[in-house]
């Protein structure tokens, strides 16, 4: 997708979030939801197949029997169509819902997802379907600027969870006091995902919830 201008951080109060409790920012795709599995089903309905042979998206889409991946521009069109029509059908990441319900007892939760604007209604529907009443912000591009704008509004401890190192690096660069954690939900992607010493990699949600709670309670 073409990178858009950074989205301004809305006031926490307008999102229904208190500044008297810690703030935890959480991604959706491959963190709370099994995006690659759901998108793979979608591309299969279009006569294509998803081969998880690298930590990538469009380069993993193939026509059956072909060795060269599907054209990236055509893959992006499928991506946009998926978010406009089917993104509410992905399965939750194992343990993620329970972990957020637990964390919500001690912290404010904000869902920060990079997704096309047309996904907002369906993504909100997905969150509510799974018992997650937390506010949603759709972002485009690196998440550091908007995360910094949100974090700057609270004196409390903050944490951020994402699967992608560029987003994690961006948040840590813009908001060094925020605890950053990497989580990769899809079992097929885990051995392929790059890691960094800057961000603890915790793929079990129960263990991740423990680490987040420890970080925001210090």
> What's the helix count?
7
Strand content: 5-15%
Oligomer, anyone?
single chain
Shape: globular
**Residue-averaged pLDDT:** 95
Portion of residues within helices: 25-40%
| Alpha-beta classification | alpha/beta
| SSE arrangement, N to C | EHEEHHEHEHEHEH
Strand order of the largest sheet: 5-4-1-6-7
Termini Cα gap? 38 Å
Number of strands: 7
- Evaluate the radius of gyration: 17 Å
Largest β-sheet summary? 5 strands, parallel
Low-confidence stretches: 1-5
Question: Can you tag this structure with a few keywords?
Answer:
alpha/beta; disordered N terminus; 218 residues; 7 strands
Would you write up a description of this structure?
There is one protein chain. This protein is an alpha/beta fold and 218 residues long. 33% of the residues lie in helices and 13% in strands. The strands form 2 sheets. Strands 5-4-1-6-7 form a 5-stranded parallel β-sheet, sandwiched between helices. Strands 2-3 form a two-stranded antiparallel sheet. Helix 3 packs parallel to helix 7 and helix 5 (144-151) crosses helix 6. The longest helix is centred in the middle third of the chain and has 14 residues, at 72-85.
Question: In brief, what are we looking at here?
Answer:
With 218 residues, the chain is an alpha/beta fold. The protein has helices at residues 35-44, 72-85, 96-103, 120-129, 144-151, 165-174, 205-217; strands spanning 23-26, 49-50, 61-62, 108-114, 136-139, 158-162, 179-182.
């Amino acid at each position: 997708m073409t990178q858009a201008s950074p989205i301004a951080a809305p006031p926490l109060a307008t999102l229904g979030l208190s500044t008297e409790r810690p703030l935890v920012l959480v991604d959706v795709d491959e963190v709370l939801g099994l995006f690659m599995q759901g998108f793979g089903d979608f591309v299969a309905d279009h006569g294509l197949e998803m081969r998880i042979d690298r930590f990538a998206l469009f380069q993993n889409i193939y026509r059956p029997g072909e060795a060269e991946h599907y054209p990236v521009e055509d893959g992006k069109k499928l991506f946009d169509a998926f978010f406009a029509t089917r993104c509410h059908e992905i399965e939750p990441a194992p343990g993620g819902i329970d972990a957020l319900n637990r964390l919500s007892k001690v912290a404010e939760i904000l869902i920060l997802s990079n997704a096309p604007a047309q996904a907002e209604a369906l993504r909100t529907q997905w969150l509510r379907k799974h018992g997650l009443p937390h506010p949603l912000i759709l972002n485009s591009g690196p998440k550091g600027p908007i995360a910094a704008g949100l974090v700057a509004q609270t004196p409390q401890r903050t944490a951020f969870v994402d699967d992608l190192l560029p987003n994690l690096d961006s948040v840590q660069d813009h908001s060094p006091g925020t605890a950053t954690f990497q989580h990769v939900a899809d079992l097929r992607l885990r051995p392929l995902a790059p890691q960094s010493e800057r961000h603890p990699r915790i793929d079990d949600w129960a263990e991740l919830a423990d680490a987040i709670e420890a970080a925001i309670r210090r």
